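Aim 2, interim progress: modelling of the 2-phosphoglycolic acid-bound target.
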Amino acid sequence: MKLYICKDYNEMSEKAAQIVGSVITLKPDCVLGLATGSTPVGMYTRLAEMNKEGKLDFAEVKTYNLDEYYPIKPTNDQSYRYFMDKNLFDNINIDKANTHVLNGEAADPEAECAAYDKAVEAAGGIDIQVLGIGNNGHIGFNEPADKLVSETHKTSLTESTINANARFFESANDVPRHALTMGLAPIMKAKKIIMLVSGKNKHAALMEMLSGAITVTNPSTVLNLHNDVTVVCDEDAYNG
Ligand code: PGA
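Predicted structure of the complex, ligand included:
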């Protein structure tokens, strides 16, 4: 695992944009695995600036997002489809038909998840997967549990995640209780992984992951089995 400790959120965002941007430069038709949440917003802003400056071209890039609430309409301003459009896709020259987010209103969520895994494989797999980390160590919505699920699936959110995400909703009661998430297997099949970590509240989860031990109580620890993971964190996250 490669670790970059950045001074602050802005430096972390710049570093992460450079790393993701370099993958796009080397392979203009690459497949990006993308994440939502507050952490990657600065990186997305920087990538959009690089696109406007003519330094990055998204015309042939394909994207697959990690997760989506369930049920939720894509037009709901709390959906991850809405988030991605607003924070990235509407600000770059990507073909929206090449952007994929799990369908939060799928009538058959199991079929939706199985088709998503097949689509990622058919696209040639993910060249670089962007990840955040939950306070509880989740990646995507792979929450701590007695058993972790490998394939993409419908899952229940833990109280910890509902409370952490309540800040985006009017109240914790409004946070959807379920989500569709890429499983750990498709995440681990990504050729490269970059994890962004910012803030003191992530310190404990980050330290567990960096310790190298693998545990179901912190799903991010499975990344210790991947051979190309870059963690870009800020000093608050690293020092606690
Ligand atoms: P955050 O979420 O970036 O909003 O902290 C990260 C996550 O839950 O994976």
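The beta strands are 2-6, 31-34, 62-65, 67-70, 99-100, 128-131, 153-156, 178-181, 192-197, 229-234. Residues 37-39, 132-134 surround 2-phosphoglycolic acid (CB under 6 Å).
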